[in-house]
Structure formats: C-alpha cells, structure tokens
Write a structure and sequence with these properties.
The complex is a heterodimer of chains A (about 110) and B (about 120). Chain A has no helices and 13 strands. Chain A has about 110 residues and is mainly β. In chain A, strand 9 and strand 10 form a beta hairpin. In chain B, about 0% of the residues lie in helices and about 50% in strands. In chain B, the strands form two sheets. In chain B, strands 2, 4, 5, 6, 9, 10 and 11 form a seven-stranded mixed beta sheet that branches. Chain B has a four-stranded antiparallel beta sheet with strand order 1-3-8-7, with no helix packed on it. Classes of the chains: A mainly beta (about 110), B mainly beta (about 120). The interface between A and B is medium-sized, with 24 and 23 residues.
Chain lengths: ~110, ~120
C-alpha cells in the first residue's frame, strides 16, 4: 500500500502569515498516461465533512480562495496557505489516488 | 446539485455486521467514470479510506480491511451499500460516502455529512 506521511502534525501561524504543509509518498504518484500527479488535499473543520481544495497536486477546486496552492511532483508535495485567515483553522489531509486511495495522517493548523 | 447522504444504525454490538447506505442525487453511477467511495474517521483521528465502487461495477478495497468489507449497488439506482462484518469497538467512527467525478480516478469532490456508528 502507498503510505503518505504529513509534516508537521500541527502548526500555529500568525494571521496573515504563510502556512506550509508537507506530504511525502512512499511511491511515485505521477501517472504517465494522464501526465498528472494523483494527489489531492482536503480541509476539514471540526464536526464537518472534508472539503476538496486541491487535486492533481496543484489544481484548485472551484470556489477555493487563491491563497491556497499546491505544488510538488512524484513523491514530495506541499500545500501552502498564503496570508492565513481565521476561517482557515482546520485539519488538512493529503490523499493519493494512484493505487487505489489512502490519506495522510493530517496536519492541524491553528492561529498563533 | 450533487448531494450524498449516509444512513444506517447508530449503535452496534461487537461481532455484528454493519450495513450502511449512501443515497445520492445530482449524478448517476451509470455515467462513465463516476465512482463512489466510503471513508471513515474514528473520533479525533485521521480519515481512513475503505472501499470504492466504479460505474462499471469494479470494486476496490482497503488492503487491511478487505476481508471484512463489501461494496455494492443498492436496491435503488441512486444508492451504494457498504457492509462490514465482525464489528469491534475500534470500528467506532463516522462513516462518509463521497463521489469521484468523471475525468478523474480518485479525488472526492462531494461528501455526505457522515454517519456516526458506535460499537459497544
């Protein structure tokens, strides 16, 4: 099975500052036939369902603010939130869908 | 618009079998490329993907749980059913169903609100 390791487990960032979350895969997630990385990011607020924010490693889901961006390829990926807002407090998960699906352990983002 | 709703028992005893139904609207599981997955989340813990049913009937399962899981179409065209046998207190979790849209193989763009199942 493909393992996803997220770091850090939690981070506290001041309002308006940058938050960076890492996700490392045990296997290359680049799918040559589609020419895309099979990785997504989700945001989950307390007591709520997960929300898709990034797919194909760097494509923002419709309606997601542009302060959220995804980058990386192969086995190393990053979710960046520029200018953290109060409503961004949540747990963030990466998910691979190369074979078949697994989630990372989550990163909790809080306000410093 | 796309919606999904989980339904099933709130409480089970150890060794019983869990049967959950995902009832959806706004899309068809007969559409080429559409898939429906089940994911669970124990209280305070991370998401864990369980199983997926594809538009063509193909099924995929979590390696660690596949001997206990079965995913299938429900009695209605807009339902997907998950069964999990031999339930244990460690299976206490919120169970979510979610859709993968056509054109992709695994991103989950719409989720149900979740169904909390307690085993004790």
């Amino acid at each position: 099975d493909i393992q996803l390791t997220q770091s850090p487990e939690s981070l506290a960032v001041s309002l308006g500052e940058r938050a960076t979350i890492h996700c490392k895969s045990s296997l290359n997630l680049f799918h040559s036939s589609s020419n895309k990385n099979q990785l997504a990011w989700y945001q989950q607020k307390p007591g709520r369902r997960p929300r898709l924010i990034i797919y194909w490693a760097s494509t923002r889901e419709s309606g997601v603010p542009d302060r959220f961006s995804g980058s990386g390829s192969g086995t190393d990926f990053t979710l960046t939130i520029t200018s953290l807002q109060p409503e961004d407090v949540a747990v963030y998960y990466c998910q691979q869908y190369y074979s078949p699906l697994t989630f990372g352990g989550g990163t909790r983002v809080e306000i410093k | 618009q796309v919606t999904l709703q989980e339904s099933g028992p709130v409480h089970l005893k150890p060794t019983q079998t869990l049967t959950l139904t995902c009832t959806f609207s706004g899309f068809s599981l007969s559409t080429n490329g559409v898939r429906v997955s089940w994911t669970r989340q124990p209280p305070g813990k991370a998401l864990e993907w369980l199983a997926r049913l594809d538009w063509d009937g193909d099924q995929s399962y979590s390696t660690s749980l596949k001997t206990r899981l079965n995913i299938s179409r429900g009695t209605s065209n807009n339902q997907v059913v998950l069964t999990m046998t031999d339930m244990d207190p460690v299976d206490t979790a919120t169970y979510f169903c979610a859709r993968t849209p056509p054109g992709d193989v695994g991103r989950l763009d719409y989720w149900g609100q979740g169904s909390l199942v307690t085993v004790s």
